[in-house]
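User: My instructor asked us to take a sequence, write out its structure as tokens, and then describe one feature of it. I'm not sure where to start. Here is the sequence I was given:
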Amino acid sequence: MAVEHAEHALTPTGYIQHHLTFLTKSTGPTPFWTLHVDTLVMGGLVGLLTFGFLYWVVRGVTAGVPTKRQAFVELAVDFVNNQAKSIFHGDLSFIAPLALTVFVWVLFMNAMDFLPVDIMAYLYRHAFGLTNWRSVPTADVNTTFALALTVWLLMIFFSIKVKGVGGFFHEMFCAPFGNNPVLWIFNFLFNLVEYISKPLSHSLRLYGNMYAGEIIFLLLGLWAATGVAGTIFGAILSAGWAIFHILIVALQAFIFMMLTIVYIAMAHESH
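Assistant: Let's start with the prediction itself. The structure tokens for your sequence are:
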């Protein structure tokens, strides 16, 4: 991951800030309505390619000896299905495909972190005329919050569907400390903290790990600015970090999937 030695010489701080700047488009009067175009495009593109590949493999499934592609997809489906089955003991017709979608999509969005930032920046600039473009959608907190809030809304939906509106609010005010009116406010505050903390922890865990990984790649890339020896040393360190980062990429996708299953399974339970 060599540092750009272009005519626009950057300080270490400027180099990192340059690579961490989003391509944005404002759609309203406040920053809240600013779209991160690179995040949206890369997330959609990764999803299209990933699930397009899965669709292509499924279309060619045979009953005989499976191809390597088919065997790989079958292993992934069986793995996710077994995880869902071990936690959720109801109908898996919705939660298992949801878990598979979350796991595969997050895994490949995380894997975009392995793209060499300077080579990709050169390609984006010279091939597409893009000065700022970030390749890792999950290193954007907007992506992880959107995914976590979707799971959170599904959790509330299934909680109301299973328990009814009355049962949902009864649980909010009468669990876990009891249904004495004196305890209603304490039950509600306890449950409110739980409901607020779930999307926060769900999203920030993934975002923090992927953002930190991106920062480390950039810091290692700065070694190239010190000369040939620094370039070689930085390349060795980057290769070592990339090998270790494979574990982080896969583990964070797995954790995000497991929390998705757990939260929706909890929505089906009553206190």
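For the description part of your assignment, you could build on this observation: Residues 23-267 form one domain. Try explaining in your own words what that tells you about the chain.
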